[in-house]
Amino acid sequence: MLAILILKALLTSNIYLPCFFVLLKQNGLENVSILAALSLGTIVMIVGDFLTSFLVDRFGPKRPIICAACIQSISVLLLVNCNSPAMLNVIEILIGLSFPAILGADSKWLRAVCPKNARYEKYNQMTFWGAQVLSAGIGASLINNPEVAHYVSASFYLLGALLACSLKEYSPNSGNGSLKMTLMEAKRIIVSKYRLVLSQSFLLGTLGTSSWLFQEKMSSFATGNTTSYLSLQLLLPISAFMTTFLTSRQCRFWYLAGMLSVMGIYLTPHLSSAYLILLIFVLASAARGILSIITREQITIGLTFNAPIATLIFIASSGAKLVQCLTMMALA
Questions:
Q1: Could you say which of 113, 145, 182, 206 is the most buried, measured as most Cβ atoms within 10 Å of its Cβ?
Q2: What residues of the chain score a pLDDT lower than 50?
Q3: What is the pTM of this model?
Q4: 17: exposed, middle or buried (C-beta count within 10 Å: 0-12, 13-18, 19+)?
Q5: SS3 of 49, please?
Q6: CA-CA distance, 223 to 236, in Å (whole number)?
Q7: Close Cβ partners of 227 (under 8 Å, ≥ 6 residues apart)
């Protein structure tokens, strides 16, 4: 299990993210073009998520992850010389097609390695948010050298591809199942949990928007005090990471916090207080951390490795991505 969690950390360590807007602005791109490309990338991510989820459920997680990690690495390297909206759109399409692979394959792989460990999703999400803390720290410390942050990030993805090559493949018994059979089985499970899927899609989709809006606003302060910028960048992932340690009994409050954050995010264009906006983003990130665990645990509970786990997570997360895309377009 440890090797798979390390793989998850490598492939979700988006070290380039704190420098993303800064680099593209240096290359002559404007916020409107960047946010539009991110919206496009989010839409493409739904398609990429669907393709990789089906491949993972049918053939196992290893090969899809290796291919996706290589594409992800190349895409981030291309950002260094990206100086036009058209080129950025192409890069975001590549990222959208490759990044989702690990987000469904991780649960599938962990279920095969530790089928009797009911807490593997909690460790999975703790690893994800821990990687975000590491990414924010390294990326923000390289804010004066955004190109270096992108090189380091691409190197991490390549290391992830190499690690995946060394891991054992687990091919599901349902490997010969057709796309129709996979979707029918996933539909049967999702229908029984449709209220959970719809509510969590809206919440997690809107809360996920906060990270990109935060980066857009922080790019204005990137040329200032590096220590202050680093501290601000660490606020969001640390707040999400800390809530992953909570128990299920402490989760009801975070549903309320999530709803309050959603309202706050839609109001940010009309708010003048930087401290209030920052508080909204921190609260949204904290709620996102614990709600991501609840969603995965409740969707995959009682399932075996042969169940279409990756496809189920795709169906649940695609709604969140669609909400995120529409929210960014509305606030752009």
A1: 206
A2: 174-176
A3: 0.74
A4: buried
A5: helix
A6: 20
A7: none
